[in-house]
TrEMBL record:
Keywords: DNA-binding. This is TetR/AcrR family transcriptional regulator. Residues 36-55 bind DNA. The keyword Flavoprotein does not apply. Residues 13-73 form the HTH tetR-type domain. The keyword Plastid does not apply. SUPFAM superfamilies: Homeodomain-like (SSF46689). It comes from Streptosporangium fragile.
Length: 208
C-alpha cells in the first residue's frame, strides 16, 4: 500500500500510514464496537472530516487497518520462505517460524487485530482465514521446493503438513502472548517441534 498524504487545515501533511497507525491503536485498545472516529482523529492529530475523506467510515477504516496488517505479514512470509527454500531442515524451521513471531513482537496491535480480534468482539474472520490459507499455500510451495533439493517426497500430504505447521505456530505464539512469555524462546521451541515432526514422519503410512 502506498503512503499517500493529505494536508490538513493547519498545514500538517498526514501520511496515510500515520492515520492507519492511529486507527490501529484505537481499535486495539477499545475494540471495534467502542472505537469512535473522534478518538482516531484525536490520536492522529487530525479531524473527523479528514478521516472520512481519506479512509471512509469506521467499518472501512477498520478494514483498511486489518488489510494493511495482512499485507505486511504476507510480505514477511514471502520473503522468509524465499530465503528458506534451499536451507537445511533445522535452519528452514527457524526461518519458517520467524515471520509470525516477529509480527507478534514488532506489530503487536496488528497481530491482535488480525489473528485475535474475536477476543475483543471483532471478527474479521474471512480475512483472517484468507491470510492463514495464503500462508499454508506458501509453506506448501516451500516444502515442495525443498523436496527437490533435500527430499523426501511428501506427495499429497505436503499441504496437510503445512497446515499443521501453521497451526502449531499460531497456538504457540498465542499461548506465549497470553502468559507474557518470551516470543524469541517460543519461536525456537516451535521451530524445533516442526523440525522433529519432519524427521519423525512415517511416509509409508502417510502417503497413498
Amino acid at each position: 500500500m502506498s503512503a499517500r498524504t493529505h494536508t490538513s487545515l493547519s498545514g500538517r501533511r498526514f501520511e496515510e500510514d500515520d492515520l492507519l497507525d492511529a486507527a490501529r491503536a484505537v481499535f486495539h485498545v477499545e475494540g471495534y464496537a467502542a472505537a469512535q472516529i473522534a478518538d482516531i482523529a484525536k490520536r492522529a492529530g487530525t479531524t473527523k472530516p479528514t478521516l472520512y475523506a481519506r479512509l471512509g467510515n469506521k467499518e472501512q477504516i477498520y478494514l483498511h487497518v486489518v488489510r494493511r496488517e495482512a499485507e505486511v505479514f504476507r510480505g514477511w512470509v514471502a520473503d522468509a520462505y524465499e530465503r528458506g527454500s534451499r536451507l537445511p531442515l533445522a535452519e528452514l524451521a527457524e526461518v519458517g517460524m520467524e515471520p509470525l513471531f516477529r509480527f507478534a513482537a514488532e506489530r503487536t496491535e496488528g497481530f491482535n487485530l488480525l489473528f485475535r480480534g474475536e477476543k475483543t468482539g471483532d471478527r474479521p474472520a474471512a480475512l483472517r482465514q484468507e491470510v492463514v490459507n495464503s500462508v499454508i499455500e506458501q509453506l506448501t510451495s516451500l516444502i515442495k521446493r525443498r523436496q527437490e533439493a533435500f527430499g523426501p517426497d511428501l506427495g499429497s500430504v505436503a499441504d496437510a503438513l503445512a497446515a499443521a505447521c501453521v497451526g502449531v505456530a499460531l497456538q504457540v505464539c498465542e499461548h506465549t502472548i497470553d502468559r507474557g512469555g518470551d516470543l524469541n524462546a517460543a519461536q525456537h521451541l516451535a521451530a524445533r517441534f516442526v523440525e522433529n515432526a519432519f524427521h519423525n514422519l512415517d511416509l509409508e503410512t502417510l502417503t497413498p
